[in-house]
Write a structure and sequence with these properties.
By secondary structure, the chain is α+β, with helices and mostly antiparallel strands. It is 20% helix and 37% strand. It contains 2 helices and 13 strands. Strands 1, 2, 5, 6, 8, 11 and 13 form a 7-stranded antiparallel β-sheet that branches. Strands 3-4-7-12-9-10 form a 6-stranded antiparallel β-sheet, with no helix packed on it. The longest helix has 30 residues, at 26-55. It is elongated and about 90 Å long.
Length: 250
């Protein structure tokens, strides 16, 4: 109630000043104009900040395009919520990036930097992106592993298709592969797809019909993003989403 009265009083005050300004003595008008400019500066700052923040994807957003028949969908936390540490340099293998993501490589000396950044483009639905700068690279592999949540396993069968959608920007052309890993009992099934980076809409599907999984024993699923020849390159991943849908019956 008090805030409402203060807001209403402020509006009435400036409305009255505006009405009286035409007949106001010049000395008073000069002082009033200075005060009005000070107020306008703060108001413009508030408006600019609000427009900027309100235009960004909301932190924690899970909104994205997925098949109509999808029975499960997920965006990893790395693209959804802020990390405790925004940037890292000389990133070692097995470095965690939040709860679900880990970096793996076999470099003797790491010249890899990672930074989470706020997505600001109109086309972005994910609140955050992740940028990876690779300088000298003396290893044989570099991958980003994403652990799917437990509910990705619930009700899984060979009738399911997993789909990954992503938005990737690279400084130089690079090959990136997505590998779906399904642990069932003592075994792990792997399905590999190359990301079609030349296409505007980058997505791949993993059809479990061609796998050898024991449906009743699947206990864990994760995805590896594998970067081939990453040396002297900057890779920005604006979004990664996963969905699962039953294959249409023929």
């Amino acid at each position: 109630m008090i805030q409402y009265l203060l807001k209403r009083g402020s509006q009435q005050f400036w409305a009255g000043v505006a009405r009286r300004s035409r007949a106001m003595p010049l000395s008073a008008l000069r002082a009033t104009a200075t005060r009005a400019r000070d107020v306008r500066h703060h108001l413009n700052e508030i408006i600019a900040t609000a427009e900027s923040r309100l235009a960004l994807p909301a932190i924690g957003a899970m909104t994205f395009m997925k098949p109509r028949s999808a029975d499960w969908a997920w965006r990893p936390a790395l693209w959804r919520v802020p990390l405790p540490e925004v940037g890292r340099v000389a990133v070692e293998s097995q470095t965690p990036l939040g709860r679900e993501a880990n970096i793996f490589h076999d470099c003797r000396e790491s010249e890899l930097t990672l930074r989470q950044l706020r997505n600001t483009r109109e086309a972005d639905l994910a609140p955050f992106g992740v940028r990876m700068d690779v300088f000298r690279f003396d290893g044989s592999f570099l991958s980003l592993a994403l652990d799917l949540p437990e509910d990705a396993v619930e009700g899984i069968s060979k009738r399911h298709l997993f789909r990954m959608n992503t938005i990737v920007e690279t400084e130089r052309p690079i090959e990136i592969f997505a590998r779906l890993n399904l642990r069932h009992g003592p075994n792990t099934e792997q399905i590999v797809r190359e990301l079609p980076l030349a296409q505007e809409d980058v997505w791949v599907e993993f059809d479990l019909a061609y796998s050898q999984i024991n449906e009743k024993r699947v206990s864990k699923i994760w995805v590896d993003l594998i970067f081939e020849g990453p040396e002297m390159n900057q890779v920005t991943i604006r979004d990664v989403t996963m969905s699962r849908a039953p294959r249409a019956e023929l």
